[in-house]
Amino acid sequence: MVGGSLSRWTMSYFAVAIAWLIAAEALMAAGFGFPNADLASPDTLVVVHMICIGWLSMAMCGALFQFVPVLVGKPLFAARWQLPALLLLTAGLVALLAGFMALGGYLPAWLWLLPLAAGLLVAGFTLVGASLVLTVWRARPPIGPAHFVLAGLVSLFTTAALGGAFSWALAGYGGQAFGALLESGIPLHAIAGLGGWLTLTAMGVSYRLLPMFMLSPDVGGERSCMTLFAGSATVGVAVAGGLLAIGTEAGINLVLGSAAILAFATLALYGRDVIALYRNRKRRRLELNTMMAAYGFTSLAAAALLGAVLVATGSFATHVGAFAFLVAFGWLSGLILAKLYKIVAFLTWLEAYGPAIGRAPMPRVQDLVTERRAAKWFALYFVSVWVGTVALLFHKAPAFRYAALAIAIATIGIVQELIRTRRLAYVAEPLRLPNGTRAPRLLYSRT
Ligand code: HEM
Fold first, then answer.
1. What integer is the mean pLDDT of 222-236?
2. Which residue from 62, 137, 166, 339 could staple onto 10, CB 3.0 to 4.6 Å apart?
3. Tens digits of residue pLDDT in 32-58
4. 140-174 pLDDT, tens per residue?
5. For the purposes of burial, counting CB atoms within 10 Å of the CB of 79, is it exposed (0-12), middle (13-18) or buried (19 or more)?
């Protein structure tokens, strides 16, 4: 079961992550950054990192603090590091955004903010990573979802190291080597971050959560292992080959082409397993979270198809923004929002009613949500993301802003539902707070 013991600060990570998401969506709706500014402009970098670090990485870290201990059957190593890590990551992200604003001329040219930010972010991610890796290390589980998380964490450190090198180079330190990295290494940083850290980790987590939420038989360690190896090889070839190509001043296209082929193999293996999990489920009626997760998987497949078509027609570079948007919002954010809907309900149930199990009649987890109300927000979310992708493909900046506005409204709608769940607003009396139970706090868990 998810959450044998509750992670105190997971809800705080989720809350901070959601705040960054809504702020980034508001900026996109206001026309800040791509497509109104260049993809590599400071404005775009602000929005990209609010989403990649503030939203996606924070939400993933919060979920992993809860999930990894359950996965390996051991308590979290140094759970007290969670709050300092959250503070370091938040301070680092604020400094990074301020550094980008300085680059863009919104602030005085305080470029030292960039290396400072990199230091704070690396320190925060190190606390998160050390806590998770040592938790897995103490349990030494057979190869499975926990190893996806480890591969994801290696990618996270690669991303942060490359980001750190860029920051030093942009601040005018670091010499020729960092300069060469900044010139050609940005695709490697993006692949390690979106592909290695976020996608591999999301895949590993879904190998465990989908069977649990749909009552499907596991696909088996061997099959998930193949996906893990193919996925790790993709990121390994892209990053190690890319660094070698940059170091030897050879072209990077051959490396990226080979990584793309491996990425397709990974997605094919993963897709086969996800389809098997849905097909073989015992719970015939899908809950909203698994239905919406399916739209996330569809977006991943659509992104793979789009990437292939763009490469085949030689227009990938022109449309990389649309491709990255579909990966970040359709696949990663879509899946995370869908899973948050279930995880928040489950953790809230465990916190409120766990202490009274067997002592009083109590509601079911599903009584904490009203799926009908949330479904319309999820529908608006996914449709707007797909419309936004098409708008980017056809360079229709005003249409993209309307899509971004709709995405922001849908996100706020979903978040309202999460808050109602947390407040037990949908649980009918007298089951709501039987003897021996307390309403949970909104932003952290009583452990
Ligand atoms: C220690 C953490 C990080 C630091 C210091 C950092 C820093 C940077 C810098 C300085 C650039 C700009 C390079 C340039 O064009 O001049 C950049 C680009 C980028 N970063 Fe990060 N980054 C970090 C983490 C991440 C993470 C975790 C992700 C994704 C999960 C990510 C995704 C990206 C992407 C997609 C770009 C390219 C954006 C574009 O060209 O519009 N970064 N990063």
1. 97
2. 62
3. 999 999 999 999 999 999 999 999 999
4. 999 999 999 999 999 999 999 999 999 999 999 98
5. middle
Distance 46 CA to ligand 1 centre (A): 9
- CA–CA distance, 13 with 381 (Å, rounded to integer): 22
Residue nearest to atom 38 of ligand 1 (CA): 45
- Find tokens 């863009």 and name the residue: 104
| Ligand 1 atom closest to 194 (CA) | 30
Residue with structure tokens 């955004």?
Answer: 97
Distance 33 CA to ligand 1 centre (A): 14
d(CA 167, ligand 1 centre) in Å = 9
Residue 3 has a pLDDT of 43
Report the alpha-carbon distance of residue 106 to residue 72 in Å, rounded. Answer: 47
Please identify, by atom number, the ligand 1 atom nearest to the C-alpha of residue 100. Answer: 10
pLDDT digits (tens, 9 = 90+) for 286-299: 999 999 999 999 99
Which residues lie below 8 Å from residue 271, measured CB to CB, with a gap of 6+?
297, 301
Q: What is the pLDDT of residue 265?
A: 98
CA distance 162 to 171: 14
- The H or E element that residue 23 is part of is helix 10-29
User: Whole-prediction pTM value?
Assistant: 0.97
